[in-house]
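ugh ok so i messed up the first submission bc i forgot one of the chains. this is the corrected input, ALL of the components this time, i swear. 274 residues overall. if the numbers dont match what u have on ur side tell me asap before i send this to the collaborators (the ones from the other lab, u know who)
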Amino acid sequence: LHTQLQAWRSQLRKGNLELAVLVALEAKPRYGLELVELLNQFELGISEGSIYPLLARLRSEKKVETKWVDETTGHAHKYYWLTERGRTMCHRMVATWREFNTAFGRLLEDRR
Amino acid sequence: MTLPRDVEAWLAATARCLAGAPDRAEIMAELRDHFATLRARGARSLLREFPPPEVYAAAFPGARAAAPAPHRRLAALAAAPLALVQIVAIALVALGVIKLVAVPELGVWVAPHGRFVIGVLDAPDAHELLGWAAVPLFIAVGLLLRVAARRARAALLPHPGI
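and heres the new structure output, hopefully the right one now
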């Protein structure tokens, strides 16, 4: 059961990673490692390896744009920010998440 | 910034696997920046959260399949022999433990006509070769085989992904 629960948690994380990244980029541009650290502050368990393929996909889907920015810290970081398309997707995903969360909350309440 | 040798090797292998990806140079520059930033902060195991290069590269849009075809064929061919080696390894460790705690006569025997038998042989002309040395030998060889089989399996069989 423990292994199955771990696999389910992993799928849950993977399934919601795009939403988490879009929400994290809604407020301001961020770079990859910064995103991982921010999301893990909320205990979402995002691995460093998973972020760059997702960001590359979001870029190919024109949901984010990028720019290399030198913060005068010795080397530049590649920053990501939402396009209008990405922002619209983010709002729709958040609305869907809330609907789902409400429905699931009702189901869990109903079981008592 | 200079990166550790294992990270450089991982980056080089990932770059090779990303040969078909449209943004290969961008991806590699970004990964290099990622590791350099962590390194500058004093992090040590930089690759801990990254899968093998061929698996990682395949996760990017436009990249080729996770493992080259010959690699997949080799993995398929090796699966059954590796499983057999693991069973032999476990059996050897079990034999060592059983000899130690329950059946002292268990060992490597030379039967009449020069035939070798692993187990217990109750024949008048048979003699045991290793005596109590069989206990550490069985356990050590069993453990070594198990480690070797697991490493070979990890290197050959498909990675679960990221």
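quick check: The longest strand of chain B covers residues 107-110. that seems consistent at least. Residues 110 and 121 of chain B are 9 Å apart (CA to CA).
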